[in-house]
Each structure stands twice: as C-alpha cells, then as structure tokens.
Amino acid sequence: MALTIEEVEHVARLARLNLPAEEKNMYAQQLSSILDFFTILNRLPTDGVEPLAHVLPLFNVMRADETGPSLPRDEAMANAPLAEDGQFKVPKIV
Amino acid sequence: MTEKYEAVIGLEVHVELKTNTKAFCGCGLSFGALPNSHVCPGCLGMPGAIPVLNRELVEFAIKTGLALNCKIAEFCRFDRKNYFYPDLPANYQISQLDLPIASAGYLEIESEGVKKKIGINRVHMEEDAGKLVHQGSIMTTPYSLVDLNRAGTPLLEIVSEPDIRSPREASMYMEKLRSILLFLRVSDCKMEEGSLRCDANVSVRPRGQERLGTRTEIKNLNSFRSLERALEYEIKRHIELLEEGGELVQETRTWDEDRQVTLSMRSKEEAQDYRYFPDPNLPPVIIDPEWVERVRKTLPELPDQARERLMSEYNLSSYDANLLTMSKDVLDFFDACVAEYNEPKLIANWVMGELTRLLNQNNMEIKDCRVTPSSLAAMLKLMEQGTISGKIAKVVFEEMFNTGDAPEKIVKDRGLVQISDESAIKAIVDEVIAANPKVVEDFKAGKEKALGFLVGQVMKASKGKANPEIVNRLLREELSRP
C-alpha cells in the first residue's frame, strides 16, 4: 500500500513537523511498509475477539479525591523559555 | 417565512465538576487562584508523569448519567484527542470517544403546559484545558500568557439529541440541565465563570421534510440570553440564505456578544483531525451493577420530583414550583422556612419576590444571604400578628437583608410597630379629610379611585405604620356620613 506524498504532508502537518522534500519520500516509503505489515495482520482470523482497550490486564486504577502537593510556582515555571507575571509567555495562536 | 421552516437544534454542554482535585492528578481546583499555583508534572504535561483517575469523577458521572435517565456503561475507556494549542500542555486532551460512561437518556422540559422529552445522546468524562490570558483582544494582543491552574479540571460533556426545535426550548433545556446538576451538587454551574459552557448545533429544513439541512455550530455562548439570541440570529440567517437560493456551509461560528451576530471561525474543510486513540496510561473502567445501584441510592430529590411535591403538598402553581426548583439552595431555603411557618404560598411569594429582587440587585446568591429561613419566618409571624403591616414588612425585610438583624430588633429599634389604635388613626383620617376637600367631593360624587388617594395620604402621614385595613374602614365610615 503506497502512501502518497500528500498524505505524508498531511500527517506531518498534524504533528507540526516540517519535512524537507527528500525526507517526505523516505517517510512515504517507511510508512507504506508499516501499513503493508498491517495488511498481513489483517489476514489473521479475529472473529469473536474483543477489541483490546489496554495492553495490561488492569482495570479501575483510581485514587481517592484527596488533594496532594502541587509544585511551588517557581519550580513549575523553571523550564519556561519565556515567562511573565508567573505565566508562560507564548506566541499568540488565533 | 419562519412558519415555512423548522429549526433543528442540538446542544453540547461542558460542565466543570466540583471535586476536590483534578481529574488525573492530586492538584486542587482553584478558580481565581494565583496563576500556575495549582499545577504538577501531570497537569503540566511533563513527559513521564502518569495520570491516575479520580474516583469521584466517575461517581459524579454515574450520578449525572442516572439523573438524566441514561444507561451507564459497564465498560468504558479514556482516549486521547490530539491537537496543538498553547492551553493544552500535553498536546492531547484525555477524553472518551466511542465508549462514553453514559448514553441514551433524556430530560423533560415543559413549555406552556406541554411536556417534551429531549434525548441525551451521551455523557462522557474529560479534562479541561488551561487558560490563555491576552492583553485586550486575541486579535490585537502581541502574545499570550498561559495559566494552567484549570488544566486537568474534571469535565462532563453532555450531548443532546437534535430534539430541540426553538431557541426558547434550547434555553429551557439548559435551565433544566443546570437545575439537575445543581440538585446533584456536582457543579456550581456558573455560565459567566465558565463552569457551565454550551455549544449549539443548528440547522433548518422546510416543515414536513425528513432530511436535515446543513448545520452550523455556534461557540462562545456564555449566558442563557446569548444562547437564545445567537440561535435566533443563526436560524434567521439560515432561512434568509435558503430563501435567496443560497447554500449553507457546514462550519463553526462564534457568537459576537457586542455586535449580536455570529461570525465564521472555520469551515468543515479545515475541521480538526484529532487522531483519537485509547490512552495507554489509563486502564479501562469497569462499572458493575452494584456500583451503579450504590450511586443510585445516593441520588437526592431531583427538580421534577421537587416540583411535583410543591404542587401536590402545598398547592403551588406550576409557575411557582418551577421557579423554586431552579436551584437546590433556593428550594432548601424555602423548605426550611415552611418547616417553621406553614404558609407555603406566602413564603414562595417572598422568596421569589423581595428576596430574589434583592439578591439580583446585589448580585448575590441565596447561600451568601444574611436573611435565614428562620428570620423570614419570624418576620412573617410579625405580619400575621398584625405587629407590622405588609408595607412595613418590605422595609423590615430589606433591613434584614442588609444587616442580618432579627426582624423583632429592627421593628423595635426603628419604631415600625403598626398602629392599630383606632383613635390615633381616626385623628389622621380627620386631618386628611379636612386637607383634601376636592378629593372628598370626587369620592362622594362616585369616583371610587379617590379613596385610594386618601388611603395613601393617611399611610404617608403615619409613615406607613397605620394598619391599612383600619384606615380603609375608618375612611369609608367618615366619608359615608352625610
């Protein structure tokens, strides 16, 4: 199953990736081979098999509604490239 | 023209739950707190932080689902909704796509005595995003500031079926939904603060046509008023466009409150591609029937039941019963007052009249109010005993509202005891009659209205303290003398 360059560009845009032309070709091939592998998986009989929601046999992992510690404000902001008035400063996105 | 068409409306409501902590971490909820003071690696979207589901969120969701007559899923799961926006630090929102916690319910609205069921398609759990702060409007601001205190706040998204047929029905649906959520005490439901938010999907079609018209989605509806206005505007816009032979574009529009118009935000071609997939960090939730039954037992009296009770036990009109059951706090106040003084109709009038007027005027809520059910009951007893007149009662009540003082104290301190002493009133009546010969003549000539003026003069002269019944009687007696 060959993925088109347009499809690669669409997926790249969704992930906010800026790909040079030669990489688009490379990813088109690599992603196509991954999709080809799924066509092999698709041949397996899965009638009567429930869709898997989670890879571990775990359910109902929950906590009580009790307040835990939050980060001190300066620590919460420590990695911010830009900050103002205790807030993260970012380009506006309309 | 509007008779030719029918509107088809569905609402998507987001409600912030008032749990103690966020949906997937232990940070406390913090409306109005210092920016970024209630955040942790989890709600900051830092790599490696693992979300752990708040059990109370599930309980609130089951409760809400049951109150909305929904089927509660035995198995549900969380999915990631992927998109980039600065208020979403992980670049995905934890939500539920195809296995929501509750579905296939309804709520009932009543319009001019006719009951109508509005279907609830689904109720699902998700987390809120943070808040962007701009200088001025988003169009002119040079940059955005991000406060992530709200990020991770538990939300329910409640999606109606397209069963709503008019802007009025839409706001009735919202009012009913809001009162149910308030009775359940799962949310504060403040539209102006954003704890209750609503998006509307609307289309129109010629009456009798089965197929739905092209729909638009309206966002930014921050009050019942803007919901109704925006829908009215949008329905009119659809009909006019169709009448002109134009074609509607399926798109998302925003309500501009200042200009009272809807504006295009994005069309379907630019619609987001969210690439949902199951969140691998959150194991699924199995809700066994015992859990559902346990929650069902904790359901309080709901607005419809309370309404029935007020109408059958106290003989209140459906209008009164509706108003008293809009909020649980109002109903609790009413019930507590009736428990002390068994005059439900009178109490209903005071709660919906003077009390509501003063609350609105001061932008307050009943739970912050200084008048208590007991003090209102005490004041009404003073009225019943004839200690104060109905007119003075309003003065006393306003003073109670402002100072929180007991009615007995206010009446005593301000000398507001009603004058029922006939000779004292007679003296004022004589004065008023002597001072208004023209009006007296009018009355004697058959002008019944003239009496009202004279009563008013006596009341004024007594500073409102004269017993109005006695004033009326004495005036008539005096005026009927030849």
User: Which series of helices and strands of chain A comes N to C?
Assistant: HHEHEE
Structural class of chain A: mainly alpha
Number of distinct helices of chain B: 15
Query: What name does the CATH topology of one domain in chain A carry?
Result: Histone, subunit A
First-to-last CA distance of chain B: 66 Å
Please summarize the sheet with the most strands of chain A: 2 strands, antiparallel
Radius of gyration over C-alpha positions of chain A, nearest whole angstrom: 22 Å
Number of β-strand runs of chain A? 3
Number of strands of chain B: 17
CATH A-level architecture of one domain in chain A: Orthogonal Bundle
* Overall CATH class of one domain in chain A: Mainly Alpha
Residues in helices of chain A, as a percent range: 25-40%
Q: Given the C-alpha coordinates, what overall shape of chain B results?
A: elongated
Trace the largest sheet of chain A across and list its strands. 2-3
Q: How are the strands of the biggest sheet of chain B laid out side by side?
A: 3-7-8-11-1-12-13-14-15
Quote the distance from N terminus to C terminus of chain A.
37 Å
Low-confidence stretches of chain A: none
- β content of chain B, as a range? 15-25%
Radius of gyration of chain B over alpha carbons?
29 Å
Mean pLDDT of chain A: 91
Number of domains of chain B: 3
Description:
- The complex is a heterodimer of chains A (94) and B (482).
- Chain A has 94 residues and is mainly alpha-helical.
- Chain A contains 3 helices and 3 strands, in the order H-H-E-H-E-E.
- Chain A has helices at residues 5-14, 21-41, 73-76, and strands at residues 62-63, 83-84, 87-90.
- Chain A has a two-stranded antiparallel ribbon.
- In chain A, helix 1 crosses helix 2 (21-41).
- Chain B is α+β, with helices and mostly antiparallel strands and 482 residues long.
- Chain B has 3 domains: 2-291, no CATH class; 301-413, no CATH class; 422-480, Arc Repressor Mutant, subunit A.
- Chain B contains 15 helices and 17 strands.
- In chain B, the strands form 4 sheets. A 9-stranded mixed beta sheet of chain B has the order 3-7-8-11-1-12-13-14-15. Chain B has a 3-stranded antiparallel beta sheet with strand order 6-5-16, with no helix packed on it. Chain B has a two-stranded antiparallel sheet with strand order 4-17.
- In chain B, strand 7 (102-111) and strand 8 form a beta hairpin.
- The longest helix of chain B has 20 residues, at 224-243.
- The mean pLDDT of chain B is 90.
- Chains A and B meet through strand 1 and strand 3 of A and strand 2, helix 1, strand 10 and strand 17 of B.
- Strand 3 of chain A pairs antiparallel with strand 10 of chain B.
